[in-house]
Description:
Elements: H1 2-28, H2 31-38, H3 42-53, E1 60-66, H4 71-75, H5 80-90, E2 101-107, E3 112-117, H6 119-122, H7 127-142, H8 146-165, E4 182-183
Parallel strand pairs: 1-2, 1-4
Antiparallel strand pairs: 2-3
Helix pairs in contact: 3-8, 7-8
Amino acid sequence: RRRFRRRRRVGELVSAMNKVLRILKHRWLDERDARRALGGGALARLRARVGASEKRHSGEIRVCVEAGLPMSYLWRGAAARERAVAMFGKLRVWDTENNNGVLIYLLLAERRIEIVADRALHRHVDAARWQALLGVMRTAFRAGEFEAGLNQAIDAVDALLAEHFALSAAQSNANELPDAPLVL
Length: 184
């Protein structure tokens, strides 16, 4: 029994230390680090890429780059996916006329990318395809190539939206959401 209690205490200590290290990693970075990670001119290039993409389909792409999670997420051990879904709602990506908005969310502290698609696109793309797309992008993020990874993400989402929601020559995209990436 004593050995079991000791193992449990060690496990709890390790868990607490991991939580503290995660909090420090997220609090160490801020918006300036996010802007630096993308490099000079990257935000303008990403904005132009989103704008060009939205001329081909009726979908809306929103890019959000966050240095670290807020403390409320860190205390409860929330994952990047939970924050991405919350930002999908806060940024009103779900509120497009055709229900085909997509949020590309990058969390720098963990080098994680999450893509949250509204219900119209979600019906056409299965989870395995999303995971395959994310796998390619994660390589760029792990290497610290954030702009390249975001470009890959925008291009992949653009291809899916153009496949399922292409515009005819007579149509145009109403551009319901800002094209500029949001940096938090």
